[in-house]
Amino acid sequence: MHYFLYGIYPYIALGVGIMGTVARYERDPFTWKTSSSQLLRRKQLVLGSILFHVGMLVIFFGHLIGLLTPIWVFDALGVSHSAKQLLAVSLGGVAGVMALVGGGMLLHRRWTDPRIRQTSSVWDIAILVMLLAQLVLGLATVVVSLGHLDGHEMVKLMSWVQGIVTFDANAASYITDVALVFKLHLFLGLTIFLVFPFTRLVHIVSGLFVPLRYLFARPGYQIVRSRRKTPLPPARKSAKSNPAE
After folding, report:
1. Residue 9: alpha-carbon gap to chain centroid
2. pLDDT digits (tens, 9 = 90+) for 26-84
3. Comparing 199 with 220, which gets the higher pLDDT?
4. Pairwise CA distance, residues 147 & 35, whole Å
């Protein structure tokens, strides 16, 4: 079961997430939206949205850089494993609290306001609950990490992520003995990738990657009206407007 969850399930989740997102963008572009509820109720939205999105962006890029950067790069730069883990714990902890507070405000707003809840789908609420649960697990890993700041647990997680990316058949074995909270955090994160195409989270792709399509796309032109070399003939008067004709 451990090998399935952390050796096979990652490819199922990532495969469905990537192919499902592409299929939705190509086949159902009109569903590609966040369905903003700002017009229904602005209260709690601005502050909650800022805290949630800023925190999540810091966490996302922190995980992306911290886990996918090869270990030898940190060694070459002279960054020790303990220093890297201390940075991840401090920065991730602050960003996690921000995102959790902001997400809690957004969930409270969406759950308690009858009009917003009426216009919300099941996935709108479910994915927000999943993200908040993931944030709680992430903050729990911070508490566990404070008990061993030598960075060895972080190296195991980095080896697992990089092993999955490079199709290492032994990737699951790298995290066999890590704490349970790390395993739950990884499993829920993979599940979020699995359901990603079926939720409003697809707007993340628009904000991060779709603008590149317009930067490198060939310029197009729209002809509003073609020019005529000869003037148009004068308009004829209708018999109705001039009875003398």
Report:
1. 19
2. 888 777 766 655 544 556 677 888 899 899 999 999 999 989 998 888 888 888 888 88
3. 199
4. 42
CB 134 within 8 A of CB 95: no
- Distance, CA of 229 to CA of 47 (rounded, Å): 59
88-100 pLDDT, tens digit per residue, is: 889 999 999 999 9
> In the predicted model, is pLDDT for residue 245 greater than 60?
no
| Cα 54 from Cα 64, distance rounded (Å) | 15
Find the DSSP H helices in the chain: 2-3, 9-27, 45-68, 71-77, 81-112, 114-118, 122-145, 152-165, 180-195, 203-208, 210-215
Q: Give the domain ranges of the chain.
A: 2-13+41-209
3-class DSSP state of 164: helix
Prediction pTM value: 0.77
Token output for 103: 């997400």
CA dist 178 and 81 (Å) reads 16
**Residue 107: is its pLDDT beyond 90?**
no
CATH number of the structural domain 2-13+41-209: 1.20.950.20
Tally of CB atoms within 10 A around 138: 22
The tokens for 26 are 């190509």
Q: How far apart are CA 147 and CA 160, in angstroms?
A: 21
Question: Using CA atoms, how far apart are residues 34 and 18, in angstroms rounded to an integer?
Answer: 19
